[in-house]
Amino acid sequence: MLDMSTRFAYNEDHDMFRDTVRKVFAEHMTPFLEKHEEEGIVGREAWKALGEAGMLCPTVSEENGGLGLDFGYNAVIAEELGYIGSSAGFTLQNDITVNYFERLGTEEQRQKYLPGMITGDVITAIAMTEPGAGSDLQGVRTTAKRDGDDYIINGSKTYITNGQNCDVVIVVAKTDPSQGAKGTSLLLVDAGTPGFERGRNLDKIGQHSADTSELFFSDVRVPKENLLGGEGRGFVHLMEELPQERLSIAVSCQAGAQRAFDEAVSFTKDRNTRSWRY
Question: Which of the four CATH numbers 3.60.21.10, 3.30.1490.20, 2.40.110.10, 1.10.10.10 does domain 124-233 have?
Fold first, then answer.
Protein backbone atom coordinates (compact mmCIF):
# COMPACT_ATOMS: atom_id res chain seq x y z
CA MET A 1 0.00 0.00 0.00
CA LEU A 2 0.99 3.63 -0.32
CA ASP A 3 3.52 4.74 2.29
CA MET A 4 2.02 7.74 4.09
CA SER A 5 4.78 8.18 6.69
CA THR A 6 6.37 11.19 5.00
CA ARG A 7 3.30 12.77 3.50
CA PHE A 8 2.26 16.25 4.69
CA ALA A 9 -0.73 17.09 2.48
CA TYR A 10 -3.21 15.18 4.65
CA ASN A 11 -4.43 15.38 8.24
CA GLU A 12 -5.69 12.75 10.70
CA ASP A 13 -9.22 12.92 9.30
CA HIS A 14 -7.91 12.17 5.81
CA ASP A 15 -5.94 9.23 7.23
CA MET A 16 -9.04 7.79 8.88
CA PHE A 17 -10.94 8.21 5.63
CA ARG A 18 -8.13 6.45 3.78
CA ASP A 19 -8.58 3.43 6.03
CA THR A 20 -12.25 3.32 5.05
CA VAL A 21 -11.39 3.64 1.36
CA ARG A 22 -8.93 0.76 1.59
CA LYS A 23 -11.46 -1.48 3.33
CA VAL A 24 -14.17 -0.73 0.76
CA PHE A 25 -11.79 -1.32 -2.15
CA ALA A 26 -10.51 -4.54 -0.56
CA GLU A 27 -14.07 -5.86 -0.47
CA HIS A 28 -15.70 -4.41 -3.56
CA MET A 29 -12.92 -3.62 -6.04
CA THR A 30 -9.66 -5.56 -5.67
CA PRO A 31 -11.24 -9.07 -5.88
CA PHE A 32 -12.96 -8.06 -9.11
CA LEU A 33 -10.17 -6.20 -10.90
CA GLU A 34 -9.62 -8.92 -13.51
CA LYS A 35 -13.37 -9.15 -14.12
CA HIS A 36 -13.60 -5.39 -14.60
CA GLU A 37 -10.63 -5.42 -16.97
CA GLU A 38 -12.04 -8.28 -19.04
CA GLU A 39 -15.57 -6.86 -19.25
CA GLY A 40 -14.44 -3.27 -19.75
CA ILE A 41 -16.83 -1.88 -17.19
CA VAL A 42 -17.37 -1.59 -13.44
CA GLY A 43 -20.81 -2.74 -12.36
CA ARG A 44 -23.32 -0.62 -10.50
CA GLU A 45 -22.97 -2.72 -7.37
CA ALA A 46 -19.51 -1.18 -6.86
CA TRP A 47 -20.91 2.32 -7.36
CA LYS A 48 -23.57 1.62 -4.75
CA ALA A 49 -20.99 0.30 -2.29
CA LEU A 50 -18.90 3.45 -2.64
CA GLY A 51 -22.00 5.59 -2.24
CA GLU A 52 -22.93 3.84 1.00
CA ALA A 53 -19.40 4.47 2.32
CA GLY A 54 -19.53 8.21 1.55
CA MET A 55 -16.95 7.87 -1.20
CA LEU A 56 -18.95 9.44 -4.03
CA CYS A 57 -18.98 13.22 -4.36
CA PRO A 58 -17.75 13.87 -0.80
CA THR A 59 -17.17 17.56 -1.52
CA VAL A 60 -20.85 18.29 -2.15
CA SER A 61 -22.07 20.72 0.49
CA GLU A 62 -24.30 19.61 3.35
CA GLU A 63 -26.90 22.01 2.00
CA ASN A 64 -27.07 19.87 -1.14
CA GLY A 65 -27.06 16.55 0.72
CA GLY A 66 -23.33 15.87 0.77
CA LEU A 67 -20.63 15.68 3.42
CA GLY A 68 -19.08 19.07 2.63
CA LEU A 69 -15.51 17.75 2.69
CA ASP A 70 -12.42 19.21 1.04
CA PHE A 71 -10.64 18.07 -2.14
CA GLY A 72 -8.15 16.10 -0.04
CA TYR A 73 -10.79 13.40 0.38
CA ASN A 74 -11.17 13.18 -3.40
CA ALA A 75 -7.40 12.88 -3.67
CA VAL A 76 -7.37 9.99 -1.19
CA ILE A 77 -9.90 8.10 -3.31
CA ALA A 78 -8.03 8.85 -6.53
CA GLU A 79 -4.72 7.73 -5.04
CA GLU A 80 -6.04 4.48 -3.63
CA LEU A 81 -7.94 3.69 -6.83
CA GLY A 82 -4.85 4.33 -8.93
CA TYR A 83 -2.67 2.28 -6.60
CA ILE A 84 -4.84 -0.84 -6.80
CA GLY A 85 -4.70 -0.55 -10.59
CA SER A 86 -8.31 0.33 -11.36
CA SER A 87 -9.46 2.91 -13.89
CA ALA A 88 -13.09 2.97 -12.72
CA GLY A 89 -14.90 6.23 -13.46
CA PHE A 90 -15.53 7.19 -9.83
CA THR A 91 -13.00 10.01 -10.00
CA LEU A 92 -14.71 11.54 -13.03
CA GLN A 93 -17.89 11.85 -10.99
CA ASN A 94 -16.11 13.03 -7.84
CA ASP A 95 -13.63 15.48 -9.31
CA ILE A 96 -15.23 16.69 -12.52
CA THR A 97 -18.93 16.33 -13.26
CA VAL A 98 -20.29 16.96 -9.76
CA ASN A 99 -18.80 20.46 -9.75
CA TYR A 100 -20.78 21.39 -12.85
CA PHE A 101 -24.03 20.25 -11.25
CA GLU A 102 -23.44 21.90 -7.89
CA ARG A 103 -21.89 25.13 -9.12
CA LEU A 104 -23.89 25.75 -12.30
CA GLY A 105 -27.08 23.77 -11.78
CA THR A 106 -30.44 25.27 -11.02
CA GLU A 107 -32.14 24.26 -7.79
CA GLU A 108 -34.26 21.80 -9.78
CA GLN A 109 -31.20 20.29 -11.47
CA ARG A 110 -29.34 19.91 -8.18
CA GLN A 111 -32.31 18.23 -6.53
CA LYS A 112 -32.81 15.92 -9.49
CA TYR A 113 -29.25 14.66 -9.87
CA LEU A 114 -27.05 15.30 -6.83
CA PRO A 115 -28.70 12.87 -4.36
CA GLY A 116 -28.33 9.99 -6.80
CA MET A 117 -24.79 10.97 -7.68
CA ILE A 118 -23.90 10.76 -3.98
CA THR A 119 -25.54 7.34 -3.46
CA GLY A 120 -24.32 5.82 -6.72
CA ASP A 121 -27.79 5.55 -8.22
CA VAL A 122 -26.94 8.21 -10.83
CA ILE A 123 -23.77 7.84 -12.90
CA THR A 124 -22.63 10.80 -14.94
CA ALA A 125 -20.43 11.56 -17.94
CA ILE A 126 -19.27 14.67 -19.73
CA ALA A 127 -19.08 14.61 -23.53
CA MET A 128 -16.37 16.94 -24.80
CA THR A 129 -14.17 15.01 -27.23
CA GLU A 130 -15.32 14.42 -30.80
CA PRO A 131 -13.82 12.47 -33.71
CA GLY A 132 -12.51 15.77 -35.09
CA ALA A 133 -12.02 17.76 -31.87
CA GLY A 134 -9.90 16.64 -28.96
CA SER A 135 -8.24 19.06 -26.58
CA ASP A 136 -9.20 21.96 -28.87
CA LEU A 137 -12.69 22.44 -27.46
CA GLN A 138 -13.24 25.42 -29.74
CA GLY A 139 -13.43 22.94 -32.61
CA VAL A 140 -16.55 21.19 -31.29
CA ARG A 141 -19.06 20.54 -34.09
CA THR A 142 -21.99 19.11 -32.13
CA THR A 143 -24.85 21.60 -32.34
CA ALA A 144 -27.81 22.43 -30.11
CA LYS A 145 -30.26 24.59 -32.03
CA ARG A 146 -33.07 26.37 -30.23
CA ASP A 147 -36.55 25.32 -31.30
CA GLY A 148 -39.19 27.07 -29.22
CA ASP A 149 -38.74 25.92 -25.63
CA ASP A 150 -36.40 23.10 -26.63
CA TYR A 151 -32.90 22.49 -27.93
CA ILE A 152 -32.31 19.97 -30.71
CA ILE A 153 -28.89 18.32 -30.43
CA ASN A 154 -27.02 16.72 -33.33
CA GLY A 155 -23.49 15.37 -33.37
CA SER A 156 -21.21 12.65 -32.06
CA LYS A 157 -18.69 12.24 -29.26
CA THR A 158 -15.93 9.73 -28.61
CA TYR A 159 -13.65 8.52 -25.79
CA ILE A 160 -16.32 9.35 -23.23
CA THR A 161 -15.60 7.93 -19.77
CA ASN A 162 -18.66 6.30 -18.12
CA GLY A 163 -20.28 6.33 -21.55
CA GLN A 164 -21.85 2.89 -21.14
CA ASN A 165 -22.89 3.35 -17.52
CA CYS A 166 -24.07 6.94 -17.51
CA ASP A 167 -27.62 7.96 -16.60
CA VAL A 168 -27.05 11.55 -17.64
CA VAL A 169 -24.39 13.19 -19.77
CA ILE A 170 -23.25 16.81 -19.92
CA VAL A 171 -23.01 17.54 -23.64
CA VAL A 172 -20.71 20.26 -24.96
CA ALA A 173 -22.42 21.75 -28.01
CA LYS A 174 -22.53 24.86 -30.15
CA THR A 175 -25.73 26.80 -29.59
CA ASP A 176 -24.41 29.52 -31.92
CA PRO A 177 -21.70 28.15 -34.26
CA SER A 178 -21.08 31.61 -35.71
CA GLN A 179 -19.67 32.77 -32.35
CA GLY A 180 -16.94 30.12 -32.07
CA ALA A 181 -16.00 29.43 -28.45
CA LYS A 182 -18.48 32.09 -27.31
CA GLY A 183 -21.28 30.07 -28.88
CA THR A 184 -20.60 26.95 -26.79
CA SER A 185 -23.10 25.73 -24.19
CA LEU A 186 -23.57 22.76 -21.85
CA LEU A 187 -26.75 20.71 -21.98
CA LEU A 188 -27.97 17.73 -19.96
CA VAL A 189 -29.15 14.64 -21.81
CA ASP A 190 -30.72 11.80 -19.83
CA ALA A 191 -30.26 8.18 -20.85
CA GLY A 192 -33.26 6.99 -22.82
CA THR A 193 -33.92 10.35 -24.48
CA PRO A 194 -35.04 9.62 -28.07
CA GLY A 195 -32.19 10.06 -30.54
CA PHE A 196 -29.46 9.54 -27.94
CA GLU A 197 -27.53 6.33 -28.59
CA ARG A 198 -24.39 4.78 -27.18
CA GLY A 199 -21.83 3.28 -29.51
CA ARG A 200 -19.55 0.41 -28.64
CA ASN A 201 -17.41 0.22 -25.55
CA LEU A 202 -14.06 1.13 -27.08
CA ASP A 203 -11.01 -1.14 -27.05
CA LYS A 204 -7.97 0.57 -25.55
CA ILE A 205 -4.32 -0.22 -24.83
CA GLY A 206 -4.91 0.57 -21.15
CA GLN A 207 -7.55 1.62 -18.63
CA HIS A 208 -9.59 -1.39 -19.64
CA SER A 209 -11.99 -1.27 -16.69
CA ALA A 210 -13.11 2.24 -17.62
CA ASP A 211 -16.11 2.07 -19.92
CA THR A 212 -15.11 4.46 -22.69
CA SER A 213 -17.65 5.00 -25.41
CA GLU A 214 -18.84 6.67 -28.54
CA LEU A 215 -22.05 8.68 -28.10
CA PHE A 216 -24.41 9.73 -30.87
CA PHE A 217 -27.04 12.47 -30.90
CA SER A 218 -29.58 12.53 -33.71
CA ASP A 219 -32.26 15.21 -33.36
CA VAL A 220 -32.18 14.80 -29.59
CA ARG A 221 -34.79 17.15 -28.19
CA VAL A 222 -34.32 18.43 -24.64
CA PRO A 223 -36.20 21.24 -22.85
CA LYS A 224 -34.51 24.58 -22.33
CA GLU A 225 -34.43 23.75 -18.62
CA ASN A 226 -31.66 21.24 -19.45
CA LEU A 227 -29.23 24.07 -20.15
CA LEU A 228 -26.46 23.86 -17.54
CA GLY A 229 -25.04 27.27 -16.74
CA GLY A 230 -25.40 30.16 -19.14
CA GLU A 231 -26.06 29.89 -22.87
CA GLY A 232 -22.86 30.71 -24.70
CA ARG A 233 -20.88 30.33 -21.47
CA GLY A 234 -19.96 26.68 -21.95
CA PHE A 235 -16.35 27.28 -22.94
CA VAL A 236 -15.81 29.51 -19.90
CA HIS A 237 -17.39 26.91 -17.62
CA LEU A 238 -15.09 24.21 -19.04
CA MET A 239 -11.99 26.35 -18.55
CA GLU A 240 -13.01 26.97 -14.94
CA GLU A 241 -13.28 23.26 -14.17
CA LEU A 242 -10.46 21.75 -16.24
CA PRO A 243 -7.67 22.66 -13.75
CA GLN A 244 -9.13 20.39 -11.07
CA GLU A 245 -9.68 17.66 -13.65
CA ARG A 246 -6.01 17.78 -14.58
CA LEU A 247 -4.98 17.79 -10.92
CA SER A 248 -7.09 14.70 -10.32
CA ILE A 249 -5.50 12.93 -13.28
CA ALA A 250 -2.04 13.80 -11.95
CA VAL A 251 -2.90 12.36 -8.52
CA SER A 252 -4.14 9.11 -10.07
CA CYS A 253 -1.14 8.80 -12.37
CA GLN A 254 1.35 9.39 -9.58
CA ALA A 255 -0.28 6.68 -7.48
CA GLY A 256 -0.20 4.27 -10.43
CA ALA A 257 3.46 5.07 -11.02
CA GLN A 258 4.22 4.42 -7.35
CA ARG A 259 2.53 1.01 -7.61
CA ALA A 260 4.62 0.16 -10.68
CA PHE A 261 7.78 1.18 -8.82
CA ASP A 262 6.83 -0.83 -5.73
CA GLU A 263 6.09 -3.91 -7.83
CA ALA A 264 9.44 -3.57 -9.61
CA VAL A 265 11.32 -3.30 -6.31
CA SER A 266 9.47 -6.28 -4.89
CA PHE A 267 10.25 -8.35 -7.98
CA THR A 268 13.95 -7.58 -7.90
CA LYS A 269 14.18 -8.46 -4.20
CA ASP A 270 12.34 -11.77 -4.56
CA ARG A 271 13.75 -12.96 -7.89
CA ASN A 272 16.25 -15.79 -7.78
CA THR A 273 19.23 -15.30 -10.08
CA ARG A 274 22.11 -17.52 -11.18
CA SER A 275 25.61 -16.63 -12.27
CA TRP A 276 26.62 -17.92 -15.65
CA ARG A 277 30.14 -18.50 -16.82
CA TYR A 278 31.05 -18.47 -20.48
Answer: 2.40.110.10
